Amino acid sequence: MSTLRASVDLLPVARSVPVARHVVVDLLRAWRAPHDHDDAALLVTELVANVVDHVGGDSVFTLEVTLADDWLRIGVVDGSGVRPVIRELDTGHPRGRGMRLVAAIADQWGAEDHRGGKRVWFELRPPGL
User: Fold this and answer.
1) What is the pLDDT of residues 10-61, one digit of tens each?
2) Fewer CB atoms near the end CB (10 Å): N or C, the chain?
């Protein structure tokens, strides 16, 4: 199988969250990816929302989507070196569950240093693999 890649630069603002979600779903459809599109959309929403909430500013961030050897990898690259953490559930706070969702749904996920900032990524395998 060939490798398919796409990247999009976005501003760290709230309206970038649905844009990123739609970009991912449209790419998966165009690439005929067998992966769960809803899972991919939910997880990219969480990663981009984290950038909007915790990084912000005027710098762009990059959404990266790669489909290779049946694996789907989606990453978000931003200029902050602060890594995401999985928080304990707190019913008193309506937010803070995003990375817990990523860890629960993704087959793999991680964060790595990238050019003075970081890349947070997740991977999904297709059903039946």
Assistant:
1) 999 999 999 999 999 999 999 999 999 999 999 999 999 999 988 877 789 9
2) N
Dihedral of the alpha carbons of 123, 28, 99, 59, in degrees to the nearest 10: 110
User: Burial of 85 by CB count in 10 Å (0-12 exposed, 13-18 middle, 19+ buried)?
Assistant: exposed
Q: Is the pTM of this model over 0.85?
A: yes
Residue 59 dihedral angles phi and psi, to the nearest 5°: -75, 150
β-sheet with 117-124: strand ranges across? 4-10, 61-68, 71-78, 117-124, 108-114
* Contact between 126 and 34 (Cβ < 8 Å): yes
